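We emphasize that the prediction below concerns an isolated chain of 623 residues; any contacts that depend on oligomerization or on bound cofactors are therefore not represented. The input was used exactly as deposited, without trimming of termini.
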Amino acid sequence: MKKEKYSFKSESKQLLNLMIHSLYSNKEIFLRELISNASDAIEKSKFISMSQKKFFSYEKKYEIKIYLDKKDKKITIKDNGIGMRKEEVIKNLGTIAKSGTKDFIKSIEKNKNNDFIGKFGVGFYSAFIVAKKVYVNTLSMYEKTTHNSVMWKSYGDGKYSIEKSKKNDVGTDVILFLKDSEKNILNNTIIKDIIKKYSDHINIPIKIQEYNEKEKIYEWKKINSAESLWTLDKKKISTDKYINFYKYITKDNNEPITWSHNKVEGKIEYTILLYIPSKSPWDIWNREKKTGLKLYINKVYIMDNVEQFLPNYLRFVKGIIDTKDLPLNVSREILQEHSDIQTIKKTITKKILYVIKNIEKSKYINFWKEFGSIIKEGIAEDITNKNLISELLLFSSIKTNNENVYLSLHEYLNNMEKSQKNIYFITSDSYESAKNNPHLEFFKEKKIDVLILHERIDEWMMNYLTEFKGIKFKSVNKFDESLHDTTNKKNKKILETTKKTKKIIKKIEKILKNKIKKVHLTQKFSKTPAALTTDVNDMSTQMAKLFSAAGQKVPEIKYILEINPEHELIKNIFKISDEKNFAKWIKVIFDQAILNEKGSLPIPSKFIKRINSLLINSFLKIK
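Result of the prediction step, given as a token string:
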């Protein structure tokens, strides 16, 4: 094979430039990333060797070796893992950040740090932070002859080349030719400290060459503990080791909020090490991306992102599961149908929910801000655990009077008024819109708290969350006959007013025709002349907005117009004898109510014309 030259794509060139010239906050991470890649290559080789014995013996001694060459100022990270063929080299090394280049570039341009390296599949390219050129010499375990080994070379200038090489053993050597400014890294103590800091938990021996002064020979010394962390007694695992392992498997530079490490014994035996992250990943709402746990079978790595062990609303949970009860050649399809998986999934789900429930209060608020919207999905998706999930929910309310101050449903029940029989809530497009909704006037006056729900998922969630601890939920956006009590003096007066104004109500219903379901006089409002509600069994405004946003056809909503006869504007409108003028005022009142309810009008110009006409008439009367 002749030497072939290639160019990175324009975005990849931009990214390489950023990697080389901007990311200096923590240079040592280059070694963490290259060791991580070597470890992944070995794990894949282990799996193939065990499941397809035509390749290599399971007894093969896997290891990662690090050579320091002070004379030529280079570092070599050597693994005896799966290796790569030419087409794999082009695919894996020739295309940077295959699924997230643009997002990665935006992130590092904004933050100018390397917190994001690894998350976007660019860990290998961190080598260019310290190296002026990088060679990759590799031989695939699928090749029958060493003549098919491949050398990849790049100076980090947006170009790379591929040619035949001489390599007698399967695996990959990554050779870094260091910049003059980085030659201080060529120190055994520094390398060992970095490995201990970031890679001690990797269950593959990492070795470095050291000179034995006594024997006058070079020896390979193991640096890391090389044990599968999850197989150890958790009493003997330090917090730092748990945190470093989390960072290794997730490429997340932030520490997790908490974790759970358990060995389950019985008919099905498995070990789980599960983490709750402190930050939501940038692509958490990407439904097409597979998320889940790392699967091991008897300590042999099988595959990443196994979503079969977690419900979708817990997709943010990271960690590993190691079991002895699955075949090594297991596939995602087999996992989908395997009866044991559902049993494990139920146990893991319940475990995670209790772990979340027991997060200390000071940390729980941050957890909720990051993952609360996702947890809400579980109310509809997981009927079995709905009660437990509902205990995790947090809400702002009219009494907390702050979008970022929350209370749980337990706290809401404890604060209920003695005469209160329901849990009240309001749904809206935004916190401010909900907070200033006229339907809350009655509840504020009665000192009854109302939960404020302003996320898109809330309306959908409340279709499934109908009660909590035997107390039913009621939407203040819906018509509620129980709020129109006729036992007190004020309400008796309104009832009498209703009898006197039956003709006026019929006139209003005739003017608004098929735009409304009915007109109802109400005592709910203190400052608002009129507002709209939907009937209990009809689609709400918020649900209609969700359907419309999803491109679905939405039936026209027939509202109930609730009018406050005690409001000065309504009193004066009811005295108008001119039919045309009366109709104009009623239409303006209805448009105001629509604007309050929907946030927009179908034909704003008509509303403006009516307002202008009424204003002109009022000025004429003044003259």
